[in-house]
């Protein structure tokens, strides 16, 4: 490691720690607690099961060693990561990488950053700053969840956390960034968060923001998703939770207005679910595509 990288390491050796774990991580943990019951149900469906065997007791390693590599300049960023210039519109780089290896505990958590461009509108610059902070807060929560598990494990435990990101959409109107996280312990969990930035307003968007609120877009999308799930259960030995014995609290019955989603190259809506959210763990994080013709009348004019 050269002198400049050593300096970066020294500058970022300490990361502020929030007092509480919250948001998506808490939700994922709750889902993980239900995993066994869900997997037992999927076995009834005849689907194959993903089995991850946990290790036994392990000796705790030395004190936690955290290395955070940050792009304090464009030159440094390029040295750390290949900087994707998507359509010569937005440049997304790796702001920092939380990296830890201690015994059978290991984490690699990347945090993305959208760089501002010379001459862009003020509201877009402010929107990028706000989204960068939102994404940094999100990945920091994952870091703290990992650290909490490490601290609680004592001389026992095994865990691997991997968080990475990708740019899904980058055009004149919309920038979408997806952050995926996989947590492997005795079993595994996986969840994602997709952020959308409206480049004309600088505002962050979720699924509901693309649709007219006076439309029945939720019903339209839900109907399409349920049809696809039912067909997959019947023809592909899938294990979507749509008609289980556990009732509506367990089954998927209606789409969340803030469900993770993105737009594919044809303008269709791709709905992304976390592991265990609507199906057995053997299906990972399922994605279902709703054809644009199904919901086009429900879109806001600016998104048609």
TrEMBL record:
The keyword Nucleotidyltransferase appears for this protein: no
Q: Does the keyword Transmembrane apply?
A: yes
- Which segments of the protein form a coiled coil according to its record? 114-148
Q: Which Pfam families match?
A: DUF3298
Enumerate the spans annotated as DUF3298 domain. 208-291
Q: Which InterPro entries match?
A: DUF3298, PdaC/RsiV-like_sf
Please give the start and end residues of each transmembrane region. Answer: 47-69
> What keywords are assigned to this protein?
Coiled coil, Membrane, Transmembrane, Transmembrane helix
* Name of the featured protein: DUF3298 domain-containing protein
Q: From which organism does this entry originate?
A: Acetivibrio ethanolgignens
């Amino acid at each position: 490691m050269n002198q400049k990288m050593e300096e970066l390491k020294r500058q970022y050796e300490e990361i502020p720690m929030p007092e509480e774990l919250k948001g998506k991580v808490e939700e994922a943990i709750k889902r993980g607690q239900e995993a066994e019951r869900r997997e037992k149900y999927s076995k009834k469906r005849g689907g194959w099961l993903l089995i991850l065997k946990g290790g036994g007791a392990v000796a705790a390693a030395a004190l936690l060693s955290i290395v955070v590599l940050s792009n304090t300049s464009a030159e440094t960023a390029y040295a750390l990561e290949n900087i994707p210039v998507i359509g010569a519109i937005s440049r997304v780089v790796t702001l920092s990488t939380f990296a830890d290896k201690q015994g059978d505990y290991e984490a690699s958590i990347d945090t993305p950053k959208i760089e501002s461009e010379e001459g862009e509108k003020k509201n877009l610059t402010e929107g990028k700053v706000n989204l960068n902070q939102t994404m940094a807060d999100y990945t920091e929560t994952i870091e703290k969840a990992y650290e909490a598990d490490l601290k609680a494990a004592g001389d026992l435990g095994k865990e691997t956390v991997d968080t990475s990101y990708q740019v899904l959409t980058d055009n004149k109107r919309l920038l979408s960034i997806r952050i995926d996280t996989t947590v492997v312990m005795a079993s595994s969990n996986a969840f994602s968060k997709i952020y959308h930035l409206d480049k004309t307003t600088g505002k962050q968007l979720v699924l509901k923001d693309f649709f007219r609120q006076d439309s029945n877009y939720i019903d339209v999308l839900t109907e399409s998703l349920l049809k696809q799930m039912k067909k997959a259960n019947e023809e592909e030995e899938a294990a979507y939770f749509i008609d289980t014995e556990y009732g509506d609290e367990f089954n998927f019955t209606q789409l969340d207005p803030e469900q993770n989603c993105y737009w594919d190259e044809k303008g269709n809506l791709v709905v992304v679910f976390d592991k265990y959210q609507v199906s057995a763990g053997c299906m990972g994080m399922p994605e279902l595509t709703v054809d644009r013709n199904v919901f086009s009348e429900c879109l806001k004019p600016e998104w048609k």
